[in-house]
Design brief:
By secondary structure, the protein is an alpha/beta fold. The protein folds into four domains: about 50 residues; about 55 residues, Beta Barrel (OB fold (Dihydrolipoamide Acetyltransferase, E2P)); about 180 residues, Rossmann fold; about 80 residues, Helicase, Ruva Protein, domain 3, CATH 1.10.8. It contains 13 helices and eleven strands. α7 packs parallel to α9, α10 crosses α11 and α12 crosses α13. The N and C termini lie far apart (about 125 Å). The C terminus is likely disordered. The structure holds adenosine-5'-triphosphate and magnesium ion (MG). The site of magnesium ion (MG) has 4 residues, from α5.
C-alpha cells in the first residue's frame, strides 16, 4: 500500500513537471507566433514598397498657411499640392527636397538635401587663361585692383610688417561688357590662385533654399584650395537693398546675403582668400555689403575712351589679317561703346571678309560691321549704374 502511494506521488510529481514544461513550451510558441506575425507584417510592407511606383522628386518653393505647399519638379514646373499626413507640415521648408506621388503629386517623403550643390553652382577654374595683356584700357583700374587683391596674396608679410590690413573685398562697378569678369580672371591667373566664380542670379534661381549653405561651402572650398579668389558676379542678385520681405523668396535671398556677410566677417584679410564682386547696379546694393571689412573698395570700370577702344581693337584683331586697316580710324567711329561691343564688331568685320571670300579684312569691312551693329552698345542705361 505504501508502495502504491509512493508511486502515485511520484507519478503526480512527474505530471506536475510535465505540465510546467508544456506550459513553458506553449508560452515560447506563442512568442514565436507573435514574432513571426511581426516579421510577416514587415515583409508585406517591404513588398508593397517594392511594388509601389517610382515617385517624382521635387523641391518646396513656398509653404502656405493651409498646410499645402508649392513645389517645383525637376523640369521646373510648379504645382500647388497637398502633403501626406505622415509628414509633419512644419518640417517642410522652402528648398526641402521631397518626393511626390506620381498620380496626384501629394508630397510623400522628405529627402535629404542633394550632396554637393557647390559643384553645380560655382565654376571652379584652377587657372583662368585670361591675362592682363588681353585687357584694353583700364590701366589705372588694373593697377588699383592688383594692389588690393594681388599684393596681399603674394606678400602678406609686407602688410603685416607695415601694419595695415588689405581690403577683404573689392567691388567692380560698371556697365555690362566693360571687362569686369576679364579683370577678375586676369588677377587670378597672375596670382596663380584658384578662381572660384559664383553667379548671384544663378544662386538665387537654381538653388532655392540652399543659398546660405552654398555660400558657406564655397568659402570652405576656397580655404581648402587657397590661395583663392572668390569672384561673385552679379552680386546685386543677392545683395540688393531690402525693399520688402513679403515673399519667402525674398527672405531666402536675405538669408543668402546674411550668410555671405557672416563669412566675410569670419575670416582674416590676410588669409589667402580675396573676394572680388561685380555689379552693374551700385544703386541697389545693400549698404551692409559696403561696410568696412566687407566690400569697402569700389572700383569703377568705365566705358573705354577712344584710346581704350583702339587698344581693345588691337587685342581682338591680334590673330586677324588686318594689315591695311587703320584701327585708330575705326576707334574714332566707335565712340561710346563697350569692350564687348568692340569684340562683336571685330567678329562681324571678319565675317564680311569671309562672305566676300577674302583672306584679309579691310577698312570697309569694319565700316560695314559698325553700321550693322550700331555704334553704341544697346540695352545699357547710364542711370542704372550711377
Ligand atoms: N577692356 C576690354 N579689353 C578687351 N576685351 C574686352 C574688354 N572689355 C570687354 N571685352 C570683351 O567683352 C567680353 C565681355 O567682357 P566681360 O565679361 O569682362 O564684361 P563684364 O564687364 O563682366 O560684363 P557683365 O557686367 O555683363 O558681366 C570679353 O570676353 C571680351 O571679349
Ligand atoms: Mg561679367
Amino acid at each position: 500500500m505504501a508502495e502504491i502511494n509512493r508511486r502515485l506521488r511520484e507519478e503526480n510529481l512527474r505530471g506536475e513537471l510535465d505540465k510546467k514544461r508544456l506550459e513553458r513550451e506553449i508560452a515560447r510558441l506563442q512568442d514565436l507566433v507573435l514574432e513571426l506575425s511581426h516579421e510577416n507584417k514587415r515583409l508585406k510592407h517591404e513588398l508593397k514598397q517594392f511594388k509601389s511606383p517610382p515617385q517624382l522628386v521635387g523641391q518646396v518653393v513656398d509653404t502656405l498657411d493651409t498646410g499645402d505647399v508649392i513645389v517645383k519638379n525637376g523640369a521646373g514646373q510648379t504645382f500647388l499640392v497637398s502633403v501626406s499626413p505622415k509628414i509633419e507640415a512644419p518640417d517642410l521648408k522652402v528648398g526641402t527636397r521631397i518626393s511626390m506621388d506620381r498620380n496626384n503629386l501629394t508630397v510623400m517623403r522628405m529627402l535629404p538635401p542633394s550632396k554637393d550643390p557647390v559643384i553645380g553652382a560655382a565654376e571652379i577654374i584652377e587657372r583662368p587663361v585670361v591675362t592682363f595683356d588681353d585687357i584694353g584700357g583700364l590701366d589705372d583700374q588694373i593697377t588699383e585692383i592688383r594692389e588690393m587683391v594681388e599684393l596681399p596674396l603674394i606678400k602678406p608679410d609686407l602688410f603685416r610688417e607695415v601694419g595695415i590690413t588689405p581690403p577683404k573685398g573689392v567691388l567692380l562697378v560698371g556697365p555690362p561688357g566693360t571687362g569686369k569678369t576679364l579683370i577678375a580672371k586676369a588677377v587670378a591667373e597672375k596670382t596663380n590662385a584658384t578662381f572660384v566664380r559664383l553667379v548671384g542670379s544663378e544662386l538665387v534661381q537654381k538653388f532655392i533654399g540652399e543659398g546660405g549653405r552654398l555660400v558657406r561651402e564655397l568659402f570652405q572650398m576656397a580655404r581648402d584650395k587657397a590661395p583663392a579668389i572668390i569672384f561673385i558676379d552679379e552680386i546685386d542678385a543677392i545683395g540688393a537693398k531690402r525693399m520688402s520681405m513679403d515673399t519667402t523668396g525674398d527672405r531666402e535671398v536675405q538669408r543668402t546675403l546674411m550668410q555671405l556677410l557672416a563669412e566675410m566677417d569670419g575670416f582674416n584679410a590676410l588669409e589667402d582668400i580675396s573676394i572680388i564682386a561685380a555689379t552693374n547696379r551700385l544703386d541697389i546694393i545693400d549698404e551692409a555689403l559696403l561696410r568696412p571689412g566687407r566690400f569697402d573698395r569700389i572700383i569703377e570700370i568705365p566705358m573705354p575712351d577712344v584710346e581704350g577702344v583702339k587698344k581693345i581693337l588691337e587685342i581682338h584683331t591680334r590673330e586677324m589679317n588686318v594689315a591695311e586697316v587703320d584701327l585708330g580710324k575705326v576707334a574714332d567711329r566707335l565712340r561710346d561703346t563697350t569692350g564687348a561691343h568692340v569684340a562683336a564688331i571685330v567678329r562681324e568685320a571678319g565675317m564680311f571678309a569671309i562672305r566676300s571670300e577674302r583672306g584679309n579684312v579691310t577698312q570697309d569691312d569694319f565700316n560695314k560691321a559698325a553700321e550693322k551693329l550700331g555704334g553704341k552698345e544697346s540695352g545699357f542705361d547710364e542711370r542704372m549704374y550711377h
